[in-house]
Fold these 2 entries.
Entry 1:
Amino acid sequence: MSERSWSGYLRDDGRKGIRNLILVLYTVECASFVAHAVAEGESDVHVVGFPGCYDNAYAIRLMLALATHPNVGACLAIGLGCEYTQPARLAEVAAKSGRPSDSFFIQEHGGTRSGIAKGKEALKLLRAQMDAKTVRAPMSWADLIVGAECGGSDGTSGLAGNPVVGRFYDLLIDRGGSAVFEEIVEMIGLREVLHSRAATPEVARQLDHAYEKAERYCKAVRQYSVSPGNFAGGLTTIEEKSMGAFAKSGSRPIQGVIEVSQQVPHPGLWLLDSVPDDHFMQFGYTNPNDTEGIMDLISVGAQIVMFVTGRGSVIGSPVAPLIKVTGNSRTFERMNEDMDFNAGTILSGERTLDEAAMDLMQLAGDVASGELSKPEGLGHREYFVMYKHQDTPQLEAGCRA
Amino acid sequence: MKRCFQVNAEDNVATMLEDAGPGDVRILGAGEDATVALLEPISLGHKSSTRFVSKGDLIVKYGVPIGVATTDIPVGAWVHLHNCASRVDERSNHLDVVTGVAKDTAYV
């Protein structure tokens, strides 16, 4: 297991991916129908877009991070023509990273049908360029960045689902790999526990800062990150959910706090902070749904994301395959077509936590080697890009009065 | 015998590994093979008290406080929204105790 290697895709920027995808980006909701129609029927083409007409630095960084993601080999950006976000600028950055890229405005090519035809034509060219320059390269655990998210948590998530991902994270990190976990709003109540995991005093300071921001955020929106399904599944308080969620971080020291779209600086365990900056927290939510959190994890370079769901979920993700883990054997049986891994066998005594973590690592290796995860095979590619601020510009910027 | 799981020796609750109760269930994990007699049916993923908890005392799971008892809780009782409150989150005490559905949202 420790020696496992597989053949990946080496990009000009030196990053290695486990898939060779073309990403279609759209820059306003008005272009989304055409963008999806362009990608229709093309299994290696994924779509992500931003709905807003007014641009947003956070959303632009996120789209650029996806356009230059290791699993992406080419990029096509499609706009309507009157929005703020410029598709040509997105394509330019992707091209600079060595990925064949193109862009166009639908208004300049007629309408729906002609826009789709233009996009299909562009795709054909991009695929040919991408294929011509595709370089295969060996990959191992040290080349892998894995993200972890949980959603639809129940009483089993903190006992089995999240701990098995945490133990897998320990194995991955010990083999030189990188692991990212997020949902700091689900660490409320755990300040001291979090502090004790800091790799250095500087990291402890970063963790304090992120924790305090998350606390202020929850108070400002008057909502903690806990949902009706969580309570129905046996979780009684946010503190209880927090401890269960934190188990997916495993036991290795935290190397630092990174923000959305910031690339993982070096191997090890990282906490991703997706909470909006204070001044603008009225204008953005941290984790409005599971898909948004998964997008954040992919934006920092995760080639695979683990999704722990006690109650079950039917989402997937574009760009990086989602592996669905449940700690609830009943959920695994009921939603078998969607669930990749049953950690409920730890609770039934059929295998130990260590055995289950090795099995999960085997599955991660299989997916890295090209095997489709369940959501990937079903064609799930949900995405969610929203207005958010993590750049704290001056409050008056852009307004005279 | 049906089973529940106690994560930390200091915990005063254990999580059901299957639907159980009323009656005896075995406590796995930090429970050192003890049993607890459930006073009522408790679903998979939900918690039973394993010790008597006085009103105002902390509910402890994973070795950390996860809330405060809002009534005296006898051994073997279902511990949930009706007798345990978060120390930070007020809204969760306005949810339906079984379904978790919010009762404070207006649909008008």
Note: The first helix of chain A runs from residue 32 to 39.
Entry 2:
Amino acid sequence: MATQKCAETKYLQGRREFFRGLKNLDRRSFLRVSAAAAGAAVASGVAPCRSFLPVTLAQAADPDARKQSFRFAYISDSHLYERSLNDRFVNAILRAVDDVNHMDPQPDFVFYGGDLAQLGQAKELELGAQILKELKAPLKVMVGEHDWYFDMGEKWRELFGKPTYSWDHKGIHFVVLNSVVERDFWTARGLTPMERMLTVAGLDNGLQSPFSVGEPQRTWLAADLAALAEDAPIVVFSHSPLYKLYRAWNFWTDDAEQVQAILKRFKQVVVIHGHTHQLLTNRIGNIHFHGMLSTAWPWPYAPEGMPELTIQMSRPDPFNPNDGCGNGEVRVHPDGLVDKVYNLWNRNPVTVGRNYTSTWGKQGIPPRPNRPSY
Amino acid sequence: MSRSMVSRGGLRLALAGAGLLAAVVLSRPSVAAGQPPDVPRAKHGAASMEHQLQLLAKITPEVDAAKAPAGLDPAIWAAFIPKDNALTADRVALGRKLYFDARLSEDGSVSCATCHDVTRGFTDQRPVSEGIAEQLGKRNAPTTLNVALLQTLFWDGRSPTLEHQAKAPILNPVEMGMPDEAAAVKAIRGDPEYQEAFRRAYGRDVNYEDVGRAIAAFERTLVFVDSPFRRFAAGDAKAISPEAKAGWDLFNGKARCVTCHPMNPSNPLGTDNRFHNVGVSARHRDFESLARRAIQALEKDPSEKGLDELAVGSDLSELGRFMVTRNRADVGAFRTPLLLNVGVTPPYMHDGSLPTLWDVMDHYNKGGEANPFLDGGMEPLALSEEEIGQVVAFLFALSDDRLAGESQRQLTVQRAAAGKQRPFRDEQVALRRKLLFEGRVMDRGGPGK
């Protein structure tokens, strides 16, 4: 007996033999047996012996990381409700905060990707702000549409300041945009603040307008970047993806082309966005796009418009509300490109490395899940 | 835990009134509280091997080992039996002999049946098991009943088959403590009965692989699925009490049990064969520091034996499935135990920390213990006392008829214990009057204050 095989490998071998044996069964028997073995199929989704260190330890062992690159952590899309409606999402963001606080060494900062609240209520935002205060590393916050459209960002600005800003960190220029600006669809219809909020919070709701960055912010962005050289490393944060993926769910920024045009003169730009609650990778010309995971729930993939570079995560397990959710970290290299780590709570973490997007998916391909997506 | 060793002798056989279990009345009563009384004892609190064998013979009549047990689908049954270990009468007989043979332990005091005792629901009914030299392990002994249909073995699923599983405790230093396979084989090789039995069963001399195979073959015959609930599910509406029926509805609804404990014709055990953190070990462990130590320990010794020793004998045991996969998603996650005969296998959970099924219900009613790795399906259930009693009544209706006597006795003992104290009950949390996160966030001057 080969004693060097780990228990997991042996288990999988055993299961493989088990499933091979099934081929000899007639169809009816197979159906019955496969019901009994459903759990084994799920278990085989774990790659054999691909044990991983907690993110923190793996990081400390990477000499490249210590030399010049740095990393920050992210938490996004927590969608907190008031206590009487839901506390599951509160526990989820607390888990993310624990994850990040246990990173050793601590990340340079923590980025919050928007949609802290579900319906823009003061209590929701206050609860979220209180929770994020537990983070040990410095915090940067971006706004999402769920934070904004009850009081048009009044409470959010009181808690977190301006929604549009930039800063430099270790040679990288970081920019945060409010990409969820909607045309006024409410005044003419006489909608109450809550009706406006609920309209924006819904998918497949044709009443609301598509998201955009808008002219004032585009002007600001152009000015903000004006002094930078073409090879300056830039990371832009936006809540919605800064491209057009799927209009009905507002996985979409209406003036994406105009924003991309402002970024065009740079050698390479990274855009990191929330809103889509899933592994999402795209590249348009010089711009490399990465999505963030939600702590609250995973969205299915859009029925059309999926970027080719995206390796879709498989369908979340409906029996595990944590599956498909998570948080993550971003390793920023001196050239401005990033390794994007999706720390899925119920699965092995997935890293989409800079090598993958910079070679247009030819190298550094992340492991494909062996279960179907949707 | 105090146990008095009771000598054999002065036995009088008497059939227990309602049950089919035979109870043996002794001159000196009482072992550990809650354990079957009046049974001749061997070492470590187990019933004597002779007594267990007698009882086993009574409750498991001779059957054709090659056929699927009554009531189980032959196709499913066949799929769970390895090709190199088809069930034969000779293999089962050899396995039975090995299962009850304490010579397989280093000091001759522990057999499989010490901790998987016929009189105690094929467990030891203790929080954690006692091995050679009175050493206590870290985990509760699961029952060996109905294990043939499990997809992985041990609380952390580190073993893929019964054959593989059976070989581990013999070599574990806090269980049966044999230094190596050769020593275990040597302990029985001189016995001409074994020489002949191995030859008949496997056509070979005594060897360690076949020890595992034979024990597995015997364990596959321990199919105990003939419960009142089974008759109820088959259409006999009167087979279980109205209380238990209400419990079955709760099981599938408000109490959310079925999410992880599916019970249906193709999977009658009541386990999803998966691993969940329900917060049991969060009561007394900081997972992060444990996980770091575990990774160092597993890197130093990645062998299967090393894992077995850490899982059973060290405080890293509390990491559960993480020790096998080293995946953060599995921190503090343990195998969903099967539910059949759960009434006769107290105490509960991987560490035996919950003495009664009422305590188990209290644990789930408050949504488990908060920890960062808590399974996403855990949430407060808002079950009333009456509803808790109904689910417990349903759980006791899962006892095989042959264990009815012990099941009835357990119901009485557990009800009495639960009547005295319910240390895991937290009604405020169960009813969401207090939310688990509020202790952490709000009490520090957050919103709502």
Note: The CA atoms of residues 164 and 177 of chain A lie 5 Å apart.
